[in-house]
Amino acid sequence: LALAVGLTKSTVSLLVRELLAEGWLIEHEVVATGELGRRPTPLFIDPSRLLLLGAEVGVAEIRVVATTLTGVVLARKDLSFGAAMSLTGCVASLSAAVQELHQELAGDDRRILGMGVGLPGGVDEASGVLRFSPNLGWHDVPFGALLAEQLRGTPLAGVPLYVQNEADVAALGELEFTVARQADPLLYLSINQGVGAGVIVGERLLTGARGFAGEVGHMVLEWAGPRCTCGRQGCAEALISPRAMLGDSGPLPGPASGSPVGELLRRLDAGDAATAKAVNKAGKYLGVLLQNLATAYDPACIVVGGSCLQLGDALLQPALETLRTYAAAAQLEPPVVQISSFGADAVAVGAAALARYRLTRPLIAPGAQHNNLPKGT
Amino acid sequence: LALAVGLTKSTVSLLVRELLAEGWLIEHEVVATGELGRRPTPLFIDPSRLLLLGAEVGVAEIRVVATTLTGVVLARKDLSFGAAMSLTGCVASLSAAVQELHQELAGDDRRILGMGVGLPGGVDEASGVLRFSPNLGWHDVPFGALLAEQLRGTPLAGVPLYVQNEADVAALGELEFTVARQADPLLYLSINQGVGAGVIVGERLLTGARGFAGEVGHMVLEWAGPRCTCGRQGCAEALISPRAMLGDSGPLPGPASGSPVGELLRRLDAGDAATAKAVNKAGKYLGVLLQNLATAYDPACIVVGGSCLQLGDALLQPALETLRTYAAAAQLEPPVVQISSFGADAVAVGAAALARYRLTRPLIAPGAQHNNLPKGT
Question: For residue B221, which residues of chain A lie inside 8 Å, CB to CB?
Fold first, then answer.
């Protein structure tokens, strides 16, 4: 350890003792290695004392998780709303849910290190403002400030709070908590009612000028295509989302039929040919989107996640086939596509990862590298 | 100056004297400022003694420029080939052209600091390999090594040499030599026979896992659209490039009719309605591409350049109109679109900028930021 960080053994011991005391690290039992000399004491990230909270705000549901520093989910809460979720209702419910989790888990030797929220739209992280969420119909909502206000006077009041786009936090979940961190650039494509991507380049989240980078659900794939919730025509989301598939497969179900993905699954299970065809068509357009993401970012890996993954091969097989066909036509290798290992927790766990990311990595501001001319060559 | 860099006045004086001696800086005459105290000596980047070389390798032509450290073009050479340019012919001609420029300009107190080359395809800059150029039909060509080999034994043998994609270098030209450096992310969209983008985020070039990031000419805009030179169908390039416009406007001209853009201009001037319609259609698809670039990267500014800009409003007006329509539908501001101030020199000057960029900025390797947990909060 001393060798790796370039400090003396005694300084490392001192720092390790501090990290042990603060709950970052834990010592495991000394094990016989068979080698000569004093047996080393193995150190691990302490999974029990410092916790992270992460929340996913969906279109009609909220999921909150508490995780260890390494992303293991310790507890989970789900809240469902009707079709429409009001902003004040959302903030109040979210605040109540994280407090419940905190009460269940936190104690004398356990504390919440930070909290993250993933929102379905473009977010300006610095100000905590949700710029635009087509599926919620929210414009310029100061979500971070509203939640902080709601948490005032509670035990969670002082906990660092971060908000970001849902696909962005899920991408950070892959970066912080999985082996995918070696893949650069790393993309996470979120396929829910909304479609969006989180992009990580050089271990930094690509956010863009206004927080809209990666809003690839609104990449236009068809001139004069179907109308999207955002107002444009022919967006990827309007061709791929569950509602698009339902629209292509027959009359829209009433509110009693459950989630759009659930309804699609029910129809597929019933052997409905029109639904199978609609899902296949959406899969092909998903393949076009994946191909376009590959040309835009040249990712080492694209992780896909979101509720539509429940459709399984019915959606993914035509998508990957389309992607392979494009790559073969250009004599290129297709990009690596993986399914998120966090399943339905991807955004909530990712939101916890956002807190870890911001608390443990130095913030390099864009433009921090100045154009200093050196002395010469 | 001492205040700005945080060094003592005497150290700054020493460093400035060194920079003056090496040709980086120049002192101008002392001017009366009307203020009290010793009049300050204004310092400027020396435009005369340290030069950069930049080359654009096109599909059937090469342009080489020599510039000052601030991107002012001092000399220029153009080479035209028939429709097909061989790799060996290209390297030999390029080598001869840069040597001619060097001979014309370099002297006892003038030296070439570095040289850059912009190539029409995906480039792995570290190895100097051109991965794939659909329009040249070249695959995995070690262009940097071939050119270095050709320059062996010449006065340019020791000069640092860099190769990169043409749109990438043009983006660096905007970053290094214009005020657009304040725009982050900054995109340069190159619209020639090939279409591609250079993307700069936080003053760093986005290159991707294999050097293909920004190859947005091969973003698919139309399912089962026209066949592209890359082999795919429906790529932006197959809908926007001059050859696509000519194909839509009537029978292809023979080789005697000059460049495709020249032929389009001739037909537009002659009032050909089919050509006007074809250029308008390409402009609309250019608008779709610009809209998709905006969703992918959320740029603060998109600079457009390339030979197609000669078509002027016939191409740009429908493009910008399409972009505005999409933005208005989503109730968002359209991204800022600017025409490159370097005109037809954009890639060659950008290649010179690549040399300045690599020689004067510290290379931050992707992944250099490690996940070091700090001592606590």
Answer: 220-221, 223
